[in-house]
Batch of 4 targets.
Target 1
Amino acid sequence: MNFPLARQYFYREIHQPEKNINLAKAALYIAQEEYPDLDPEEFLNALDTMAEEIEERLPSEPYPLRVIQCINNYLYDDLGFTGNNDDYYDPRNSYLNQVLERKTGIPITLSLVYLEIAQRIDFPMVGIGMPGHFLIRPDFPDVGIYVDAFNQGEILFEQDCEQRLSQIYQQPVTISPTLLEPVTPRRFLSRMLMNLKMIYLNRGEWQKALASIERILLLFPGTPTELRDRGLLYYQIGELASACQDLESYLMQVPNAEDSSFIRQLVAQIRENL
């Protein structure tokens, strides 16, 4: 496997039963490609320490709202974690080591910090991947509350989630049950990588965007849109044979895609130059 060492660790972590995937480790292996000197154990230990300090403050009767308030007080009031509204698309917001060091991030990475702490204090929570935003909720039957880790741990109800989505899309949105379903670890990691992919594409950093796509394809091999995007990036950096292979694979899977005519023309052009 001709991968950087960090990606080999990532591959090993995600290629086990879903319930065994350690999200924090996998996220740190994503970060390790960008920060080669990163020691994952240092940040896993930091999460352990944070959980231990919260555990000392837990109420004697650990009702969900009381536990959430305890976590919120520690993370946001004492440590000063906050959502990065000032520079939302800074790639550092998507790397767990940087989020822990800088105490700021985007919804999904702040949710990851929250989830990891909750797991360590035996307070089960799950990620909720709403479109345009990411929330978490206690994993108890009929609990009916959601936590917005990006906004100081604000507690939301389903109606609040609808309002939040309506604000994002600037039109009324009705929440369907599927929008509030828990995300699996692989989907969680894929969403983190999709954020990095879009950030690096917008910056014109093709190699880093390519690295994000490659890891998405490790999570979900053969995904047509990712094969297409990887093919387009290969074309952009002059790797024509690889570009042709990915783009042809895309067309084989979705021959009637809206962009199929453009992709066929591009493949024909590439073949003339091979």
Note: The first strand starts at residue 82 and ends at 83.
Target 2
Amino acid sequence: MAIAATHSTSDLFHSPPPFLPGGRLLDNLARLQDTIGFGRVLLNSLGIAVVHTALSSLISAMCGYGLAKYRFRGRGLLLGAVLATMMIPFQVLLVPLFQMMASVGWIDSYQAVILPFLANSFGILLMRQGFVDFPDEILESARIDGSGELRTFYQVVLPCVRPQLGALVIFTFMTQWNSFIWPLLMLNSEDKYTVPVALNTLTGLSRVDYSGLMLGSLLATLPLMALFLLFQRQFVAGLLGGAVKG
């Protein structure tokens, strides 16, 4: 992909294909910017992914904490309902969600892309497992010292589940960054396109800009790589958390 991004599309179909970097990187970058405004769509995707990840991670953490540490009637039933939603195919939700967004006038808006999937069942269950082993005695001590529920959650409990939270941040950001079908349905204006939707426009009926696709895909992976390098320790610890007892 990196090598193809430095060649023209015609060069990629030579026999044998190029195995060394070429000199068309800047030309491809300029054409990519002129064709789809890649800088703008990159910022669109980054803004949507950051806002979605922050809100979704917060909601998942709060829901997981409630299911793990609060005792109330129907808690097991609610947990079962959350598990059941994981078995619903995404394609089944497209038509009713589209009708909901149309009914409130949110078609071609960023909130239609961000809000419908904030409550993520995987994130809720992941955070719940992180909170289950948190000692109840610490919670009682914080409450006796006069700490409110929100302060206890944000200052006492949440810092102790950073591995699970880091894993959730990476997973949520990656899912939203790579999302294609839902933004394609919701966004009609080219200036609001995300990276996957904008790159799809480079694929025509009679011509495909392969060098532009390779360069755009290469640039689109950089934020994911940076995020993983930033949270890699928490990600690995979050995946292994709870695997070994004792």
Note: The mean pLDDT is 88.
Target 3
Amino acid sequence: MGVNLLRERYRVDLIELQAACEANYARLMRLLPGMREAQVARRVALSQGERQLGVLALEVVESCPYTSTVQVRQEYSLPWLPVPQLEVRVYHDARMAEVTGAQSARRFRGIYSYPNAAMHQPDEKTQLNVFLGEWLSHCLACGHETEPLDVGGGPWP
């Protein structure tokens, strides 16, 4: 028997995917609180001691009454590492944020057969949304403004 016949078929865990998208919405709203009103942008620096590890750039590229599209990308990445870039669709009425694009790929399916020509994992969509959550959580926990603020200061809103 082939290896593929012995492996159990992957099934989408909709509860896990929805929870990840809801948590990502809350994280994005903390990082970009004015996202619904305008096309805003923010740069969050990540560092360890005196060493700068990179900058996460968040930019609202489209803003509609019920949805927004946000581009999330790493700046100043390591020279040997491809620069991560995600496109996120934010559904304000449902309070969810879903990854709809990564690098050059767009519109992910819930399940991929494996192996496939694009080398997507069977749960590629879930993995990307979990990755976005980890990225945003790290920024909220360890990030700081790239430019000093004139007023306020303190932790994230």
Note: The CA atoms of residues 24 and 51 lie 27 Å apart.
Target 4
Amino acid sequence: MSSVTIDQRATGYSLGHALCMAHAADLAYKDKNTVENTAREWGFPRVRHHETRFSPPFPLEDTQAYTIAGEHMIITGFRGTEPKNIRDWLSDASTPPYPGPGGKGFVHYGFGEALNSIWPQVRAALDEFRDSGQTIWFTGHSLGGALAMLAGARLHFEEPRLRADGIYTFGQPRTCERLLAREFNTAFADRMYRFVNNNDVVPQLPPEPAFHHVDALRYIDSKGKLHDSMPLASGLVDRARGLTADALAPASDGVRDHFINNYISALEKNQR
């Protein structure tokens, strides 16, 4: 991790910055000492840890994140959860809808509860650290990607004086219904970047039509090549190719593709 160099003056999208944000999403899984030491190595000397416990009707007991601040940039990284823990409750579309940010549509109940439980801590860190006009970035993998997207939406729709300059998510599940997705796509046309690795199972959940993805897809194909979109026909062929890549364990592809280290490896490969 110490070899990562984050350009704190970065704006908009670049492959290099996407790789940095993937490392930042991975950092959310580390212990507090590792987060603090790594942040300092990256040039972000100020760190706040966020953690809270709550009891939704799924096997999800806490939300964890961190906020780090440098001279020109602030990053909040949200921790995700492993596929074996997330798949069952993501598949459950019977829970009540949770009001979306700023009254814009609805979100998956688990996501709404998870972000709401930690949001006061995140907002306090942003207020504390943003003392010289630093840009604000949210990132996360898996569940953390859903929380990163919703955090950006909360700033935009509820506190427009403070906005996220960019959101990078990796293996993000479907997060909201159609109305919020449409409003979010308009607001974040050049600020949201959602990466999906081939057959990653988590972006395929919760089920449609109740839940939808936001736009700005960046698709990693079965050979590890990054695309700005995934055409329907060729995308289906490529996903089938990924499923048959491991003849001994074809069903494992959807879980294997979800691991954050595989996103990082793919982005590194595309930089060469």
Note: The chain is about 40% helix and 20% strand.
